[in-house]
Amino acid sequence: GAGVSQSPSNKVTEKGKDVELRCDPISGHTALYWYRQSLGQGLEFLIYFQGNSAPDKSGLPSDRFSAERTGGSVSTLTIQRTQQEDSAVYLCASSPWHSYEQYFGPGTRLTVT
Amino acid sequence: KQEVTQIPAALSVPEGENLVLNCSFTDSAIYNLQWFRQDPGKGLTSLLLIQSSQREQTSGRLNASLDKSSGRSTLYIAASQPGDSATYLCAVRKDSNYQLIWGAGTKLIIKP
């Protein structure tokens, strides 16, 4: 079946502009995660959804970052007033209910110029 | 605060060799540890998950060990192949919640 998909695969934006990154999880997966991976760094947890609720937003680096999930499916990560330090690969993962197995999408490479 | 370290950052070996990738963590109170493979443009794939009560897990040519007391895990790859070339990441879960703490990865190149 279809895996986790993310769009766009690459995004180049100017400093100060807003961007939206999209994640389509595997159908039926209740949990959805967003991570950020900067060059040479490990993955940094951003936010976790269970259904449409986000019980843990502790990883969001600033109030410029927000995320939502609708219909227990698609999620959008929004970065307002982008900064150069926001440049990274943004990864999304989903998992079934009560499973530790996270299935990752291919990521969106964001470059802020 | 849990920190996960992977050394070396990069490794290049000839095809056919057996090799070991290392992962260390600072807090031995973990729930489980996972090894992932990351291929460019393809996201991450889970390879092995070791529960805190386990010492090792095996899948095909891969064997992962866990020594909680010393804060170490190793991923052993037998008879390496060019298709094994990828970045290998380890991640620890502190408790039964979902959060993973990640190492920066080891980039492995297997030379034909």
Q: Any overview of this molecule?
A:
The complex is a heterodimer of chains A (113) and B (112). In chain A, 0% of the residues lie in helices and 50% in strands. Chain A starts with a strand and ends with a strand. With 113 residues, chain A is mainly β. Chain B is mainly β and 112 residues long. Chain B has no helices and eleven strands. Chain B has strands spanning 4-7, 10-14, 19-25, 32-38, 44-51, 56-59, 62-67, 72-77, 86-93, 100-102, 106-111. In chain B, the strands form two sheets. In chain B, strands 2, 4, 5, 9, 10 and 11 form a six-stranded mixed sheet that branches. Chain B has a five-stranded antiparallel sheet with strand order 1-3-8-7-6, with no helix packed on it. In chain B, strand 7 (62-67) and strand 8 form a beta hairpin. The mean pLDDT of chain B is 93.
- How would you state the average pLDDT of chain A, rounded? 92
pLDDT averaged over residues of chain B: 93
Q: Tell how many strands the DSSP assignment of chain A holds.
A: 11
Shape of chain A: globular
- How many helices of chain A? The count is 0
Largest interface: A-B, 23 and 22 residues
How would you spell out the order of helices and strands of chain A?
EEEEEEEEEEE
Gyration radius from CA atoms of chain B, angstroms: 13 Å
Number of strands of chain B: 11
Output the number of helix runs of chain B.
Answer: 0
Structural class of chain B: mainly beta
Net shape of chain B: globular
Beginning-to-end CA distance, first to last residue of chain A: 37 Å
Which features characterize this protein?
heterodimer, A: 113 residues, mainly beta, 0% helix, 50% strand, globular, B: 112 residues, 5-stranded antiparallel sheet, 11 strands
Give a short summary of the structure.
Chain A has 113 residues and is an all-beta fold. Chain A is built from no helices and eleven strands.
Topology:
The complex is a heterodimer of chains A (113) and B (112).
Chain A: E1 5-7, E2 10-13, E3 19-24, E4 31-37, E5 43-50, E6 53-56, E7 65-69, E8 75-79, E9 88-95, E10 103-104, E11 108-112
Chain B: E1 4-7, E2 10-14, E3 19-25, E4 32-38, E5 44-51, E6 56-59, E7 62-67, E8 72-77, E9 86-93, E10 100-102, E11 106-111
Parallel strand pairs in B: 2-11
Antiparallel strand pairs in B: 1-3, 3-8, 4-5, 4-9, 6-7, 7-8, 9-10, 9-11
